[in-house]
Amino acid sequence: MSDLRTYISQIKKNHELRTIKKKVSTKYEIAALTAKADGNDALLFENIKESPFRLVSNLVGTRKRFAQSVGSKEDDIHKKIIHAISHSKKPKITKLGIFMENKSNTISSLPIVTHFEKESGPFITSSIIYVKNPETGKQNSSFHRLMPIDKNHLSVRMVEGRHLHRCFTDAKEHGEDLKVAITIGVHPAISIAGAYQEEWGKDELNIANSILGGKLVLATCPFSGLNVPSGAEIVLEGKILRDKTHPEWMVEMLQTYDHKRNQPVFELESMYYRDNPIFHDILSGFAEHRLLMGMPIESKLNGVLKKTFPETQKVSMTNGGCNWLHAVVQIKKKKESNPKKIIHKTFEAHRSLKQVTIVDSDIDPNSSDAVEYAMATRFQADKDLVIIKKVRGSSLDPSSDQKNLKTAKMGIDATRPLSKRPEGFELAKIPKADKISLKDYL
Fold first, then answer.
1. Contact 82/58 with Cβ under 8 angstroms?
2. What angle do CA 69, 289, 77 make, to 5 degrees?
């Protein structure tokens, strides 16, 4: 089965899961421990003060575990995801889901974590919302954080113009509430597909099924009629109310506080959950959050640029750019004009990008030192710099015009000029240095 428990067993076998049996609190303590583990092991909390549920965090907090979740090696992540997108296939559907083992009409038992001191409340951060596209009838799935208001109402963070918001707006215009289903605790491949911004009208679960080798099984929810992963740990069913909003604010990918927003309200009809359930918490702004959101975009950029510009070798969404705002594109340069064309195409493919740097094939795009070296030795600001003013950017960037979603973008051509002698840019090497160990001489 392709569920969360299968993946947990896998990373436990690989000694990348730490089990915490000591009693912990959902108020700051779990968040603090997850932050300490950021970029290292996943954590499984088995004794939570406020809830009978177990909780897992930092599931795909490294590229290595991200690769494990999609069944590939680190160097082949994008190849696997791009193939899954282009060869997506419908999952099997069953009537009774495994998640239907237990039922409740409140969310009171959930271990919803309070992460940061100035957030408006605790948040469910791993929630994927499923909805039916009003134009095509197909499903859409996407990440949306939820803040509890009471035992059966939660605010829903939506980004205007994205697919859930478009479905919500359509329902509202027809005087209707929007029926949705929500999962918490699924195989990371499903989360990765849910984080991918698929074209309007296409179902991200088909991508998840392809990543999982056709092993994904869905079950139909009784209230909404929507299909969700049968092995999901927790499923919420209900509707997003057309005429109610609630104020909230949260920490985003940049580890900064977003501004206060009035967001739509979800009303619970039923909550289903498995025996001995596992709640999944994602710490906002840390490694798992950034990789889940950034890596699918990195895959998209690799696919788009390699198709348009065959000289593209690798695209990296940088850690320093929060895996969202900055990209480095490694190319084998053929024409002097191509780096600037690639800069514009990269911005076009992911509009949240604020900076794109183009480097040669001998520069590691994942090394900030190597990229800075390329800028120091191969970049001239008067001719290699691209500035784009007052264009649509990320709503998360606090330095931008967040009200009007306007920002400035910068492209940097840090490649070797083809008109200059190549020897002047060649990185000097010491023969056989990689075969010599200093400890053998001590």
1. no
2. 35
- Exposure string of 254-290, with b = 16+ CB inside 10 Å and e = fewer, is beeebeebebbbbebbbbbbbeebbbbbbbbbbbbbb
Is 298 in a helix, a strand, or coil?
helix
For the entire predicted model, the pTM comes to 0.91
**pLDDT at res. 198:** 78
Give the three-state DSSP class for 130. strand
Predicted confidence (pLDDT) at residue 414 exceeds the cutoff of 80:
yes
Phi, psi angles (nearest 5°) of residue 398: -70, -15
Confidence of residue 159 (pLDDT cuts 50, 70, 90): confident
**pLDDT-based confidence at residue 1 (cuts at 50, 70, 90):** low
| pLDDT single digits (tens) 52-77 | 999 999 999 999 999 999 999 999 99
Q: Which of 115, 124, 117 is nearest to 144 (CA)?
A: 124
Tokens of 111: 């271990």
* CB-based contacts of 376, cutoff 8 Å, min separation 6: none
88-124: buried (b, 16+ CB within 10 Å) or exposed (e) per residue?
Answer: beebeeeeebbbbeeebeebebbbbbbbeeebebbbb
**Closest alpha carbon to 279 in 49, 91, 51:** 51
Q: Which domains does the chain have, with CATH numbers?
A: 67-276 (2.30.110.10), 309-419 (3.40.1670.10)
Task: Kindly provide the residue ranges of all beta strands, DSSP E only, lying in 174-223, ordered along the sequence.
Answer: 178-184, 217-220
Contacts of 352 (CB under 8 A, 6+ apart): 324, 325, 393, 394, 396
Report pLDDT digits (tens) over 260-318.
999 999 999 999 999 999 999 999 999 999 999 999 999 999 999 999 999 999 999 99
pLDDT exceeds 80 at position 152: yes
Assess contact for 240 and 156: CB atoms under 8 A. Answer: yes
Q: CA 329, CA 340: separation in Å to the nearest integer?
A: 11
Find, among 278, 303, 354, the residue nearest to 48 by Cα: 278
Regarding beta strands 278-281 and 54-57, do their DSSP bridges make them parallel or antiparallel, or are they unpaired?
parallel
Rounded to the nearest integer, the mean pLDDT of the chain is 95
Per-residue pLDDT band for 420 (boundaries 50, 70, 90) equals very high
Give strand pairing partners of 328: 316, 357
How many Cβ atoms sit within 10 Å of the Cβ of residue 249?
17
Distance in angstroms (rounded) separating the CA atoms of residues 163 and 194: 12
